[in-house]
Amino acid sequence: MAIVQTLPLPLEPAPEAATAPQAPAMGSVSSLISGRPCPGGPAPPRHHGPPGPTFFRQQDGLLRGGYEAQEPLCPAVPPRKAVPGTSFTYINEDFRTESPPSPSSDIEDAREQRARNAHLRGPPPKLIPVSGKLEKVCQKSGEISLLKQQLKESQAELVQKGSELVALRVALREARAALRVSEGRARGLQEAARARELELEACSQELQRHRQEAERLREKAGQLDTEAAGLREPPVPPAMADPFLLAESDEAKAQRAAAGVGGSLRAQVERLRAELQRERRRGEEQRDSFEGERLAWQAEKEQVIRYQKQLQHNYIQMYRRNRQLEQELQQLSLELEARELADLGLAEPAPCICLEEITATEI
């Protein structure tokens, strides 16, 4: 395929062209083919006579040699190379069409056509052969534009994924900080609970000691009751009694002895019973307070464990989401790299296998 460009050129060497009226610039190719005048100016008079030999030689030389002074459209193709049997195209700003095979291949046909269109008095079209690389270049340009657009979209998506990944990392860092705070609080509560357990154990030991002391006091009170009952019995009369004591009645002696010893024993027993009641009330109060503290500690412990489980669940979910976003980002990067390698004609790298490890702990 070849491209023909119509360019105006004054014919100063030809004396016939100098005496002829100046023709306006060439218009569309349709006017060139049909022989109609250019709409840019008045129509010149038709010349039906054959042109002179000087004009034909000049046109033939221009067709064969081309315009060396002007710069061609495609510098890579030499303008003097004749391509027989190749299609040519007239390039104009208004109209483009394909012409029959090159007139340079047949000089007689070119002369006849120049004789028919002699009234135009314009320069002959310049023949510039163009290879089929132009279509390939246009196709490659379109593919490159499409790949650039896809690259921009992929980069925008990568930027979005990167921002989401940064946000998730910030949230993960905050969750880890909150988890560390909750773990510190849980450790503090566990230490407090351990201290309470030690206090409870000490109080239990003290309560056991008080119970043992109360049992010992009960035994002592029983012994005292037994002694008091034995003192209430009438004493055995001695073999040799005092004559003054013999004068007293036995009942009076027993009452006097019982009144002296029994009063002290009753007072001691009452005192021991009152002390025992106080110890019982004190033990019950301590037991109630210890039970209330144990229930409060158990409730706080359950709350801390529930809070830790919730934080661990949130941490695992955030970790999975982070891993998913990283895998998507890596997949997009691999697709973009594979696309670039495919454009360059290289082999695709082997896909990497991502292993994920999640360790779950139970509280």
Indicate the radius of gyration in whole angstroms. Answer: 62 Å
Global structural class: mainly alpha
Strand content: under 5%
**Could you name the ranges where pLDDT drops below 50 across 5 or more consecutive residues?**
1-6, 9-52, 67-105, 236-241, 243-247
Our count of helices gives 7
Strand order of the largest sheet: 3-2-1-4
Order of helices and strands: EHHHEEHEHHH
- In helices, the fraction of residues equals 55-70%
Whole-Å distance between the termini?
Answer: 81 Å
- What is the residue-averaged pLDDT? 68
**How can the largest sheet be summarized?**
4 strands, mixed
**Morphology call:** rod-shaped
Number of strands: 4
Biased composition (Low complexity): 1-25
Main location: cytoplasm
Region (Disordered): 1-125
Keywords: Coiled coil, Cytoplasm
Short description:
The chain is mainly α and 363 residues long. Helix content is 64%, strand content 4%.
Quick tags:
7 helices; mainly alpha; disordered N terminus; rod-shaped; 4-stranded mixed beta sheet; 363 residues
Q: What's the helix and strand layout?
A:
Blueprint: E1 2-5, H1 15-19, H2 29-34, H3 53-65, E2 88-91, E3 97-99, H4 107-116, E4 126-129, H5 133-232, H6 243-246, H7 250-344
Parallel strand pairs: 1-2
Antiparallel strand pairs: 1-4, 2-3
Helix pairs in contact: 5-7
